[in-house]
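Readers of this paper often ask what the protein records in our data store actually look like. Nothing more is needed to write down the fold, since each code stands for a local backbone conformation. Below, we set out a record of this kind in full and without editing:
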Amino acid sequence: MSDDNIKSSNMNVDHFDKELVFLREATLDDIGALEQLLNCCYRETTGWTNEADLIGGIRTTSAELAAVINDTNHYYFVYPITTTGDRDGEEIGEIFGCIAVDIKTDANLNKKAYIGMFAVHPALQGKGVGNVILQAAETFANRHLQSLNQPSRLTMSILSHRPELLAYYQRRGYQLNGNKMPFPNDGNNGEPKRDDLELLELEKIVS
């Protein structure tokens, strides 16, 4: 995603109004833009959320994204770029941000919401966009779980050795719950650059 495309949205990122942020559900037509955004945010060195010093290779593939979008338990939301920079404009086929909510069932048949595939274009990082997107996903997950008469347990996983990212989520009410696993070295989601990488699970209870 180039700066020219951001300019074509008539958006001044230096004075960005986070009230302009809106989400819609992703479709298969979004796969190319999602793949580009996620691989940029996670694997390139731009923005503060990247993992380039910890993991090489790609973050996701078009096949993985298609499986997520087609999964009826998985809700994937995108913040599309429009010609006017707001909801009323015409979409130009690229995406500023995305987040997924996966409704999972644990061993006790209780449901919880797993939040993942969260990304914000580096040009908009630090401007409150991520907070708006995360809050929207949490609100959706809370309402969905309450409609099933389930407690609203929200979970996510982050890489170890990312203290700034852990602090970001802790400020938003997430806490480490003790669950962790080695980063899967299967080549499907990148290649770890150190042997001690782990995925740490965070949890938040929404009342």
In short: The two ends are 38 Å apart (CA to CA). The first helix runs from residue 3 to 7. The CA atoms of residues 180 and 200 lie 5 Å apart. The chain is about 25% helix and 30% strand.
